[in-house]
Design brief:
By secondary structure, the protein is mainly alpha-helical. It has 16 helices and 4 strands. Strand 1, helix 3 and strand 2 form a beta-alpha-beta unit.
């Protein structure tokens, strides 16, 4: 054990003497977290345009509801202008209300509104949900009018006045919603010491910390390749130290540096950015520790399948970026709809780590709730370690 700790200590001393990579990978997540976390702040309102081909009471009411919503900056154009503004990125989307919108509503049909956009985004998913909500609101008024006519028909003959009564009932229901809905809510906040809420800043802090620590760890393990190139590795093998002790010491030294980076980033997130890393900080640190262990073993595996550090520097960005995108490091996986992508996400260590931490932050997960994720991360670590050990070339 003393020999292992000695190798770990020497590895750590090398890190102290050459801290360039560590400092860069410490600063980058801080900068990315700051800029990405503040992109959504301020008075930003999503620019959208309505093309009202119907010009009816119902279409006007729909436009009014979006205009009064502080989330959107609403414009009204003709169809050609709206499409042109979308192409030039002046607006995020154009909503085209068809000519027979009111007629379809009165006929109890399903009015269809076309949304024109250049690409899918989380904002547009929110817009579609908002649109569905407003259309359901209109359909709700129709149901009220239908129910009113049905109740009156049971008591008297209104065949010749059914349409008039239905229209009056609908208009009456409609008037009760404007200018405000007849439902009021109260908002209660949980104790801030117990739960600070999960914000985009928290996701970026967690995600970028995990992303950049992977570079520190993989390149740290990759120093084995440099030692082989300059002959240091061969001299170490001549010492009265077993191969297992040499490898364990290198892995432990790299793990220590990686965990130190994560720990510093967590402290900076809490005390500088005010990020909520969860009430159960010990569980968060445990998840991060197992994630760092998994990435350390992944670094050993990658170092065993390449011959030079230049090759490692080439494949590392590809693996880290692709796995980070799949695993939900850059954005929440809630916006991903593809079953294939969600399946592939579960093959990455980032997915299990970030889903556990989000559970700790949002829902107060304890150790029992993250056992599955920890088990899968340990399994991944064991697999990478086994493959790396088998493929590692001890001699040049």
């Amino acid at each position: 054990m003393r020999k292992i700790l000695s190798i770990t200590y020497l590895r750590f001393l090398r890190f102290i003497r050459e801290p360039g990579l560590f400092i860069i990978m410490l600063l980058l997540p801080i900068l990315f977290t700051y800029f990405m976390g503040n992109m959504g702040s301020g008075n930003y309102r999503m620019p959208i345009a309505f093309v009202d081909l119907d010009q009816s009471t119902y279409s006007n009411k729909l436009v009014e509801r979006f205009t009064s919503n502080n989330t959107y900056h609403v414009f009204q154009y003709n169809q050609e202008e709206a499409i042109d503004h979308v192409k030039r990125h002046n607006i995020s989307a154009a909503l085209i209300i068809p000519k027979d919108f009111e007629k379809s509503v009165k006929a109890k049909g399903t009015p269809k509104i076309e949304i024109i956009r250049l690409k899918e985004s989380f904002e547009l998913i929110t817009l579609q949900n908002e649109l569905r909500s407003n259309l359901n609101f209109i359909h709700g008024n129709i149901k009220i009018a239908d129910y009113t006519v049905a109740q009156i028909s049971e008591k008297k003959n209104i065949n010749n006045k059914k349409e008039l009564i239905w229209q009056r009932a609908y208009n009456n229901a409609l008037s009760k919603w404007f200018p405000y809905p007849p439902v009021y809510t109260t908002l209660s906040s949980l104790n801030q010491q117990e739960f600070d809420g999960y914000t985009p800043l928290a996701h970026y802090s967690v995600g970028f910390s995990m992303f950049f620590v992977m570079y520190t760890i993989i390149f740290g393990i990759g120093e084995i390749l440099d030692e082989k190139k300059n002959g240091t590795w061969q001299r170490i093998l001549t010492l009265p130290v077993s191969k297992a002790e040499i490898l364990t010491g290198n892995l432990l030294g790299t793990f220590t540096v990686g965990f130190l980076q994560i720990f510093i980033l967590i402290l900076l997130g809490i005390y500088v950015f005010g990020v909520n890393w969860g009430a159960n900080l010990s569980a968060t640190l445990l998840v991060m520790g197992v994630f760092v262990l998994t990435v350390t073993c992944l670094g050993l595996f990658l170092s065993s399948i390449v011959k030079t550090s230049a090759q490692l520097q080439t494949i590392t960005p590809l693996i880290t970026v692709c796995s980070a995108m799949l695993g939900g490091t850059f954005w929440p996986l809630d916006i991903v709809q593809s079953k294939l992508l969600l399946f592939l996400a579960k093959l990455t260590p980032q997915y299990w780590a970030i889903s556990s931490i989000e559970g700790i932050i949002q829902q107060g997960y304890g150790l029992k709730d993250i056992t599955l994720s920890l088990g899968i991360l340990f399994l991944m670590a064991a697999s990478y370690f086994g493959l790396g050990l088998k493929l590692l070339k001890w001699e040049n």
